[in-house]
Design goal:
The complex is a heterodimer of chains A (202) and B (569). Chain A is α+β, with helices and mostly antiparallel strands and 202 residues long. Helix content of chain A is 43%, strand content 11%. In chain A, the strands form three sheets. In chain A, strands 5-7-6 form a three-stranded antiparallel β-sheet. In chain A, strands 1-2 form a two-stranded antiparallel ribbon. In chain A, helix 5 (151-158) crosses helix 6. The longest helix of chain A is centred in the N-terminal third of the chain and has 30 residues, at 5-34. Helices cover 64% and strands 2% of the residues of chain B. Chain B is built from 19 helices and four strands. Chain B has a two-stranded antiparallel ribbon. A two-stranded antiparallel sheet of chain B has the order 3-4. In chain B, helix 3 (63-86) packs antiparallel against helix 18 and helix 9 (253-277) packs parallel to helix 12 (333-346). In chain B, a hairpin with a 2-residue loop joins strand 3 (408-409) and strand 4 (412-413). Chain B is globular and about 75 Å long. With 569 residues, chain B is mainly alpha-helical. Chain B starts with a helix and ends in a 5-residue tail after the last helix. The chains are: A alpha+beta (202), B mainly alpha (569). Chains A and B meet through helix 1, strand 2, helix 3, strand 5 and helix 7 of A and helix 1, helix 2, helix 3, helix 6 and helix 7 of B.
Chain lengths: 202, 569
Amino acid sequence: MLKELRPALVMVAALTAVTGLAYPLAVTGIAQTIFPTQANGSLVTRDGTVVGSSLIGQGFTGPGFFHPRPSATTGPDPADPAKSAAQPYNAAASGGSNAGPTAKALVDRVREDAGRLAGDAPGTPLPVDLVTASGSGLDPHLSPAAADFQVLRVAKARGLPESAVRALVAANTTPRPLGFLGEPVVNVLALNLALDEAARQK
Amino acid sequence: MTMNGWIQILVFIALVAAVTRPLGGFMTRVFAGERTMLSPVLTPVERVLYRMAGVDAKAEQHWVTYAVAMLLFNLFGMVLLYALQRLQGVLPLNPQGMAAVPADLAFNTAASFTTNTNWQNYGGETTLGHLVQMAGLTVQNFVSAATGIALAVALVRGFARESARTLGNFWVDLTRATLYVLLPLSFVLALALVWQGVPQTLAGAVDATTLEGAKQTIALGPVASQEAIKMLGTNGGGFFNANSAHPFENPTALSNLLQMLAIFAVGAGLTNLFGRMVGDERQGWAILAAMGVLFVIGVTVAYWAEAQGNPAFAALGVDPAAGNMEGKETRFGIAATALFATITTAASCGAVNGMHDSFMPLGGMVPLVNMMLGEIIVGGVGAGLYGMLLFVVIALFVAGLMVGRTPEYLGKKLEAKEVKMTVLAILCLPLMMLGLTSVAVVTDTGVASIANPGPHGFSEVLYAYVSGAANNGSAFGGLGGNTLWYNLTIALAMLVGRFLVIVPMMAMAGALAAKRRAPASSGSFPTHDALFVGLLVGVILIVGGLTFFPALALGPIAEHLAMNAGTLF
């Protein structure tokens, strides 16, 4: 039995070196060389400043922007750093609401959001992704239906023709990968950047 | 449910079937010590490792020595991981300056990663620096998976050999599983994930200024390298708290497909290795078919439940057509999330691409049941195969009782010792799952961590211990698990669920290896046809159903009935 002590110690150390250092460092080296944009977080810049990542959602709130899905992420409470408080789209602490389907708190939250959104597109059924928090709290996307739902509000706030905003939504809609995987999506940051650009050129 | 959703599920099943044979053949050669296309590069590395460790690659081990070697290796690995977490404040590669992890949380995490569970009571990006993620977690992702593969291969040798005293050499099996199987596959998958958008950098977080002028701090790190082995090794511990729901861990529906395939690939390949090593590939396909039947039942229920949507929302003017999207990502949608949840708990992966806590009651019951059955539907790498073979022993024992004949499998008589060891291994799981749940729900400390009231709260506690004992690692994440009580009891469930299953299983392997192989006669029960598959599936469901039905009735089933009656908690 004692004979197995030496291999146990050596193997832990040696496999740590191989799989814990050599492997991730080799992957880092190659990834940084052949896919530098993705390897560094798919960052998006405008006029030289980093405005976000194309993969990470942001909490747009102004009427002239497309709004993302609700986010359940939290962060340290500014009043008392020992506690945590709601901080939507905190990209340093991902997470979902973990609300169960029969939780009263969940249904109350959805009722409140649904009431607030009802005026955006009267008569249209409310897309479910607009009132449900994503698993990561950082979902960068909306369903095409959820983007369409906001077109009237955004067009009015920006003073842009509705058809122009609708065209921007269509241009920023990505179909399913390989035609059948997942769902079609609209990237909210890309759409809002395009919207700013269109408003600038107006 | 949509046609498109079903196409995704069918394509996934076809891909798993397609990789089973090539991977099985490759692994059979690797563990027989034969030359493979990777040998020119890896044989010299292997030789250096053996020389440093003082291992004679030709010397085989008795099952007791094999098991002791495995236990010592896991013990030292666990101690190292614990130490790295406790000392991370003074160690390098910690750009965010994370502080030392508290003792109980570090113990829980060390147990979690050594047992291939990867239960996360810590929040990845808020607790751990890059060094712990790489040299701690990534390492255990590799070696806990390699340990599982080695054990499965040792058990298969027990069935394949005749009048033998030894089951192979743990150090050789461990090294080969790591170097030849897991490392090359991870390398390729990691780069494919980076291509899809997963970050891989040693830098810390980036500050962005949003279009509305707010500051957003975006956590980054060496994500892809850990993500790849997290899937291939059925580990499941994410770099980020939100795991594979996080867009940096799983950026597209294509990366999602690759991750799902990676979870099943090695486990499915091992069923073929089993068939090849016992000299009849049909035996492997029969095992995979039984797994396939259970898998299709699970994914159908989960997909159906999630596609229904929450009835409480319909009254609020929400379009019910898109299903239950709380806790799900837009880019995956309902089908790819329900499929992922079924896969991750069928295997002992535990990665999640949506929050299981927010699944519909019956949708969340599928992952629970998958884990309660012992994760034998493909299962954890290695662990799934040996778990399934334990059920095979029970199924044949039952069949033997029905016809009054000593049961045999692959020509080996299954006698009192084998059946006793199997029952011992199988009973560990319900003891931990149900025993600890019942203690937790009657203590104030246990109940205080529950997030959702009503039957769902019971499901949260049940899920935690089921996931821990089954070494899965997924969670009903609302449960505040980072307390002294849960850190210690879940760690206990994980260690018992792993090692107290392994030791009797190895004793059985040793006993089987020593037996003679009797030639098949007209009275032998064929174990490669539909009747056997049906018997095996039946035994799994009856054993699981009888053990766990009462607990399920108190949790998800009660919640489903309450929901349909319009009750909220």
